[in-house]
Specification:
Bound molecules: flavin-adenine dinucleotide
Organism: Micromonospora parva
Domain Acyl-CoA dehydrogenase/oxidase N-terminal: 14-124
Largest sheet: 4 strands, mixed
Strand order of the largest sheet: 1-4-5-8
Order of helices and strands: HHHHHHEEEEEEEEHEEHHHHH
Cofactor: FAD
Number of helices: 12
Structural class: alpha+beta
Family: Belongs to the acyl-CoA dehydrogenase family.
Helix content: 40-55%
Number of strands: 10
Keywords: FAD, Flavoprotein, Oxidoreductase
Length: 389
């Protein structure tokens, strides 16, 4: 290949650049202005939802055949990244719509997909994902929520914990034990509707960050649903849950990248303005080195996230490794970058008058959910050692 001909290799396609610009514009005008308020009040940012829905960014991954925007995994990651740059709580709208619907996309029948994905694409309903329980977090396969067959229905009983957007979402992917003797192979996935008799919600958790995204328990008390609400075959639910996370850890990585970018952008502007010892603090090399490290880690996180998004889109065999690596690396980077952003603002960074302390609190959750970063390291090590142990 002649010199100069390789310029198109390994760069974001123009259409993805255009999506970034479009999301950034919507977020600057209609999402960022509500971010501090969502954090302060702990209320779901309805105005952000409306703005994202109007621009078709609320569930961009849903295929066109169901009325969705049909964004690929990289475009979806960019949407989530850009929303998170403005408001991490709002970024859980597209992220959790993907998390909740992914089991259907991966394993659902044509009928169940069409019935449930269409209203999500239209913005008439949101979808949550119910895997975790009070006693089953990292060890999700030890869940005790039970589904028992009763004629052509299933009856569900149990408690799901930490469910993002619970109460706001109309639909829930619920994982439940259908055969207690088979452990992870005895778990099945179901769609439960908010309006099903026996479904109720706990009080919103009082959290450190992402306060505008409600997190609540979901109680299932003799919830009787038709058998055709099972997603995929009986006993395949846990495998579907894990495959889902392979794809959606990429979206959490994107969320982390966005939060970190928001913090770096704000801190950069601040150090250029703030003067001490007769000059802008940005002129001190100690500050410049911090900024350089922040920018370097951020870009490394972004590149790994986009590479993982490509693997998610193609369904590559090494997605499990890349999804875990991207989520783990990007969330650790976001925690460091947002903490450094607070440092760059000095005492002002420690107050709610400036957005970086919110970003630091919001970044923390990306190291915890969809599997803690210890769990991501277990996943990566298992993949790395697969051919030698
Ligand atoms: C705000 C929020 C939103 C969430 N949203 C959802 C949601 O929408 N749907 C859903 O299903 N879940 C959700 N979760 C749950 C989340 O995925 C779990 O909290 C997470 O998987 C960890 O489980 P746990 O909290 O029970 O921690 P535990 O599993 O009890 O872990 C405690 C500590 O032990 C460590 N640990 C555990 N096992 C090991 C091991 N084998 N080796 C080394 N260290 C280990 C963990 O890393 C952690 O540091 C959410 C959680 C939060 C806080």
């Amino acid at each position: 290949m002649a010199a100069g001909e390789s310029f198109d290799v390994y760069r974001l396609p123009d259409e993805h650049q255009a999506i970034r610009e479009a999301v950034r514009e919507v977020c600057a005008a209609k999402v960022a202005p509500h971010a501090a308020e969502a954090d302060e009040t702990g209320e779901f940012p309805k105005a952000s939802y409306d703005a994202l829905r109007a621009a078709d960014f609320h569930a961009p991954h849903i295929p066109e055949e169901f009325g969705g925007a049909g964004a690929d995994a990289l475009a979806t990651a960019i949407v989530i990244e850009e929303v998170a740059r403005a408001c991490a709580s709002s970024s859980l709208i597209p992220a959790v719509n993907k998390l909740g619907t992914m089991p259907l996309l991966l394993a659902g029948s044509a009928e169940i997909k069409s019935r449930y994905l269409t209203p999500v694409a239209a913005g008439d309903a949101m979808f949550s994902y119910c895997l975790s329980e009070p006693e089953a977090g990292s060890d999700a396969a030890s869940m005790t929520t039970r589904a028992v067959r009763d004629g052509d229905h299933w009856v569900l009983n149990g408690v799901k914990r930490w469910i993002t957007n619970a109460g706001v979402s109309e639909f829930y992917t619920v994982f439940a034990v259908t055969d207690p003797s088979a452990r992870s192979r005895g778990i099945s996935a179901f769609v439960v509707e908010k309006s099903d008799s026996g479904v109720s919600f706990g009080a919103p958790e009082k959290k450190l960050g992402i306060k505008g995204s409600p997190t609540r328990e979901v109680y299932l008390d003799n919830v009787r649903i038709p058998a055709d609400r099972m997603i995929g075959a009986e006993g395949t639910g846990f495998a579907t849950a894990m495959k889902t996370l392979d794809h959606t850890r990429v979206t959490i990585a994107a969320q982390a990248v966005g939060i970190a970018q928001g913090a770096l952008d704000y801190a950069k502007g601040y150090v250029a303005e703030r003067r001490q010892f007769g000059k802008a603090v940005a002129e001190f090399q100690g500050i410049q080195f911090m900024l350089a490290d922040m920018g370097m880690k951020l870009e490394a996180a972004r590149q790994l996230t986009y590479a993982a998004a490509g693997k998610s889109e193609r369904g590559d065999a090494d997605l499990t490794y890349f999804g875990a690596a991207a989520k783990c690396f990007a969330s650790d980077a976001a925690m460091e970058i947002t903490t450094d952003a607070v440092q760059l603002l000095g005492g002002y960074g420690y107050t709610r008058d400036y957005p970086v302390e919110r970003m630091m609190r919001d970044a923390k959750i990306t190291q915890i959910y969809e599997g803690t970063n210890q769990v991501q390291r277990i996943v990566m090590a298992r993949q790395l050692l697969a051919d030698v142990v």
